[in-house]
């Protein structure tokens, strides 16, 4: 039996700026999932619009990057690796 885990999507939304979410990571193990979500939140806190609650959405943060998946992925991955290093001690 394989390991339990998740496929991670980001950037989707409905409304005036309707967008399809993209797969940011094909598989993340169950015990690493929350660290990965915290990394996504950290990138959003650094680059998202926190002043306007109507525009305070991860999908709009992703659009700000011009849907450059690689740049967003690199930011999230770097923070995720820092979290994992802290977890391992």
Main pleated-sheet profile: 2 strands, antiparallel
- The coarse silhouette is globular
Poorly predicted runs are none
Order of helices and strands: EEHHH
Helix content class = 40-55%
- Please, what is the average pLDDT? 78
Q: Name the structural class.
A: alpha+beta
How much of the polypeptide forms β-strand, as a percent range?
Answer: 15-25%
**Termini separation:** 29 Å
Rg over C-alpha atoms, rounded to the nearest angstrom? 14 Å
How is this structure best described in words?
A two-stranded antiparallel ribbon has the order 1-2. The N and C termini lie far apart (29 Å). The protein has helices at residues 33-47, 58-64, 69-88; strands at 5-10, 22-29. It is globular, with a radius of gyration of 14 Å. The protein is an alpha+beta fold and 89 residues long. The protein is built from three helices and two strands, in the order E-E-H-H-H. The relative contact order is 0.19. The model has no long low-confidence stretch (mean pLDDT 78).
């Amino acid at each position: 039996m394989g390991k339990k885990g998740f496929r991670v999507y980001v950037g989707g939304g409905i409304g005036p700026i309707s967008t399809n979410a993209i797969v940011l990571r094909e598989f993340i193990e169950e015990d690493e999932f929350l660290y990965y979500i915290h990394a996504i939140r950290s990138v959003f806190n650094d680059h998202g619009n926190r002043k306007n609650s109507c525009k305070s959405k991860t999908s709009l943060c992703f659009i700000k990057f011009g849907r450059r998946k690689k740049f967003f992925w690199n930011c999230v991955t770097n923070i995720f690796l820092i979290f994992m290093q802290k977890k391992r001690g």
